[in-house]
Amino acid sequence: MLKYQSTPVQEFHHATLEKAGIRLMVKREDLNHPFVSGNKWWKLKYNLEEASRLNKKTLLTFGGAYSNHIYAVAAAATECNFKSIGIIRGEEVLPLNPTLRFATERGMKLHYVSREDYRKKNETDYIQQLHEAFRDFYAIPEGGTNIFALQGCAEFGQALLNIDFDYLCLATGTGGTMAGIIEGIAGKREIIGVSVLKGDFLTQEISNLLETYAAYKKNSMPVYGKWNVLTSYHHGGYAKVPDVLKNFIREMHQQHNLPLDPVYTGKLMWAVLEEVKKGFFKRGSTILALHTGGLQGAVSYPNLYE
Prior knowledge:
The protein is α/β, with parallel strands linked by helices. The chain has eleven helices and ten strands.
């Protein structure tokens, strides 16, 4: 239903890795689709199937003004012949930024709400109000994380086992992608998440998602293996992009031909190299870093790669 392009595994060479005796591979999942890239493809795959099964004609979802999720849903809706509505946190600002302009060009209708109302996005009464305003639609939560997203990410995790590696590293925001991949890997590899947000809440959030998915599958004995979340590489959170991170992303692009974004994958690669320096990974081991896309957001930072 949603087209998928097979993606390469790119070996990454760096003096830090050579000194530590570590091999680093990057799964370029940012190349799986021109617009619905990275983990967004996997999170939306079964949501789109479910919307079609329910005979829904419109997708409604939530996000901020620079949301990768809003961008991806707008593109997926167009490709799969759905209408789309985006509930956007905050007031309209004109001219539209590249993310929201793209969404409107793909036919998404934008509805701006106050931050107070936006916090109600998971409440039943608020969803009912949206149904009264927009009639029938299929709701996808902010970031796309629900049972169907976990199903898609679990499928992706299982497919990753065809690659030879010891550690899987990925950036995590809401925890949905990581929870699904933990399910799919089923204890066969160690998984390291890099939180892009302040705080240490993600470990519990991922655990809750895993419990919910196990209950959905009626699996009372799931196998998750060793996983953990690193919480010291957020660089200030979503909206913070310090110069040191910008310079790192520029270096990765210019010297290693690896495009990264400031919110997710830039922090991921920074964290991986720092943890290599600290001796976290065993000498002789192979790391697979997951490029989860999100490059559309990089255009919001002028001259990021120059």
